[in-house]
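Would you mind writing out the residues of a protein together with its fold in token form for me to study?
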Amino acid sequence: MSVRYACQSSDHGLARRSFLGSVAAAGVGAITGGLGAFTRTAVSDQLQREQKRVVIWDMHGGLSQLESWDPKPGTDTGGPFLSIPTSVPGIHICELLPRTAQQMHHLCLIRGVNTAEDDHGKGRYKVLTGREQSPAANFPEISAVAAKSLTPEDYSLPGHILITPGGGGGRSNDSAYLGPKYASVQLGNGKPPQNTVLPDTITVESDAARQEYRRRLNERFLSRRRTATTDAYGYSYEQALQLMQQRDVFDVSQEPARDHERYGNHDIGRHALLARRLLEHGTPVVKLSHSNYDTHHENFDFHIEQLGELDRAFACFVEDLADRGMLESTLIIMLSEFGRTPRINARYGRDHWSKAWSVMMAGCRVPRGFAYGKTNDNGTEVIDGQCDHANLFHTYLQAVGVDSTASFNIEGRDVPLADPASQPIHAVLA
């Protein structure tokens, strides 16, 4: 793999898997004659309000906390940018996020994060799984755990969507032992998944006959040798059919032109608008990827351009969810694998720094207009409210009403949802 990132780490590359050619979405517990009770044509307004959702903004590579949530202007580490007041008196953020500053009354800053891991791959694993990476076990990411915990049994579409530039419909490998049903389906460019329209050579009638023949063969086979793997295979076809019938859910071009203008004519703008559309249609878990924040060179010039896009899209997204009454049921998380060094290097860049950085949250049980934790004057260490990856993982789950001390039953074995040696950050759970 050719890697252009400054630290030359292959961990920036997103893992991809094939998605059964026809955009099949695998899972366990198939009903071979169709999804049956798992199929629905619309979600009621009441369910829309009550169903909890999670949306993760992944600032891939390491967003600088000093150029975003925890600026230190006028210090030897602060860089050239000022801090600006927000809609919450006493809370200031970097001047590169002026629109987001006006949404601060909806947000909660976690400024005391210390994950003690400066390697991209290991840092990402910690932040996304809440665990130390180990050859002895592989754990699912927070998005997959949330999908498993929050996806209604009658939800017919994939409940875990990853929106990333170039995403073509493949399954990721982020669900570990939870299985492919809860792994993310990758989308990108604001378009429906590929291969979700019948070829011109196949009529609707002939396709229906094909599917009925497949189901009968499945039933005959499963009557003799049914396993979780064979169930997953059958379920994948049924969910793919549902996706084909509802492909417009994934088509961001159907959003109003004025919203496209508001969010911005760039990837993160289109992807944020698509995330809003998916959440409004009941998708339980959406993850957006914005890259590349690995700014070992020209950190300040990069953040001017990159945060200009992010600020516009993110502020619109938060404002829209708040206006639609969705923040009560939607948890927003913005994270990276770590932050950037307070020390500015000889190339006007910042390197990897996991000892004192920031994560942003909003919605559900998270208090609004709140900043928790504090770093020292030049941002080199946490001096109050320190937390780590395991604390955050518990907190994310508790914020959407999931008991983070519970366990999944995996093939007869209880596996804790989160690190049982840790606990949530109670100060940021209302």
Remarks:
- Residues 53-191+251-428 form a domain with the Alkaline Phosphatase, subunit A fold (CATH 3.40.720.10).
- The longest helix spans residues 299-323.
